[in-house]
């Protein structure tokens, strides 16, 4: 598999040398390949790939159709749907994103449709940690996908190109993952060489293979994914297994061909100083690079040290592992993920299984779990691993075959105590808010005192959270909570509000607080609500029953969490579902969400010659939720505080007496709206007065506009709102006249429709 230096010099294609991160070069490779479709959903740290591709598309550097999904499960469906047509398809994800799409992955491999997925590895929650380990990658081992692992940005680029060619080979035809370490490889810039011309890449990969079933030719109808019984399914699985085994040979062939083109050779195992090694470390991805420097130092001390790092883990290169470990006396396998309860991570068991086939092998294997949640791996850590290997080789056995490395026991003396007096019940009761029901109309009447009298009510969230200057989340939420009397149980979905208030070991929450993921918050709190009342019914807890359950979502949570929200609404649990709308996925870097309005600029809907911001209109979530026939739906914002406090009081009454409430409050995000921090209230007021964000409620199915800027002679042009934010100023330019007109027409259409509902209770 080696190539001569002379041939290497003769055949290497022209390349550019630069400093790039792993995510950057993954995007460059994708653009040069010019995939047909990328279905994607933003999740840190893989999000940048879609962002870079969006920026490159503005410059005309590729023609990839970038399709923003409503969640990773949807993105996997988009990719599979595109792949069955024979299109070339790309995706990127991390951590819980991979788990959310997991059930789709065996469908794609089982029906044998190639595609490429960049897995930027990250710790799987909970608890939530957005930094890199391999707990997500290990979930993919049994999906039937080929898995390549890339230690450096250079390897990320090269393997993204090799991956598609391997996946499409007639002996394989399987989807493939390129996995690399989140924040280590994905964000750190290293020297990288990439091809000067995209044609070099496209000629290497070749044209898409033909002669296979695909769902794009009506003249040749096909059935894809038909139900199978056991006798047929075992044959299907056997063929998949054979194809996956074939991928090892195909990888070696493609790697050699790529080496002639690039000058860079990838074996199934990256072996560093392993020719005569007696002690070695087996490490996946970036940690191996750190260990190589330590191996050099130990060699200077006369210790025969080496490092093994696989470039392929599916199929697992068992024969190559046996060969590499033939003379190794002590081996430490370091893994950034555990296979809980099995006394070793997945690779530990696979290496041990491979060695079982070699009766003459005497390697003592030591397993250590390290580096979870992005914990750094330094040279002294690698040296500690080598010392374990040396000790095992000298003794002929491992003192402790399996353990964690780097864990620290807790110290009770350092236990944190609340810095503020925790509050409950009567502390949050003003006694000044009166809600009464009109038995004739069935509607609620609310009386609130002057707002200054409610300032005595303590805040639900303590000061000291980590939100950006000018963030509207907490001023909006706290104003809403002024209308809520008594105890609350809060659930926050993942998002800025959660991240900035509950970073272990600290919490800014004064009352019970729960976190769960974007896609499952409503269902989670509905379980809490029902369990609470069932425990009370059985007499197993003795607490007041006047608790209000509130789920807070935002940052696009009503995209990925829409199904859960609708299901919870249809079941009509006694709870409030409150959305703060900042018009994007702000916690992952201001990507487009379905609440982003038409033409607004985000990090995945850039503005340039080929694109003018988001290409479609924003989702009207209050109307969607009203269609579930829940008792109460409302909109609000802090620019109209009395209106919001009254609606909060109504929301609490309905949540306690009749069922689920949904509310949307518009809040500002100066950082990503590119607006002045001090102008938050003015921007919100302009959004309402321009009729972009109408204030209304749907109570018992009847719509009431609670503030009508037209009736008050206060309506302003939509452009007065748009010019206050940097993300929308481009819409005021002459060349974007058509986009602005479309947005103005949609705002007007929704406003007129809302007025008709206000005037006609039966609508």
TrEMBL record:
Residues 543-660 form the Thiamine pyrophosphate enzyme TPP-binding domain. It comes from the Bacteria. SUPFAM superfamilies: Thiamin diphosphate-binding fold (THDP-binding), TK C-terminal domain-like. Gene3D superfamilies: 3.40.50.920, 3.40.50.970. One of its GO terms (molecular function) is oxidoreductase activity. Keywords: 4Fe-4S, Electron transport, Iron, Iron-sulfur, Metal-binding, Oxidoreductase, Pyruvate, Transport. InterPro entries: PFOR_II (IPR033412), Pyruvate:ferred/Flavod_OxRd (IPR050722), Pyrv_Fd/Flavodoxin_OxRdtase_N (IPR002880), THDP-binding (IPR029061), TPP_enzyme_TPP-bd (IPR011766), Transketo_C/PFOR_II (IPR009014). One of its GO terms (biological process) is response to oxidative stress. Residues 29-254 form the Pyruvate flavodoxin/ferredoxin oxidoreductase pyrimidine binding domain. Residues 277-381 form the Pyruvate:ferredoxin oxidoreductase core domain. Belongs to the pyruvate:ferredoxin/flavodoxin oxidoreductase family. This is Pyruvate flavodoxin/ferredoxin oxidoreductase domain protein.
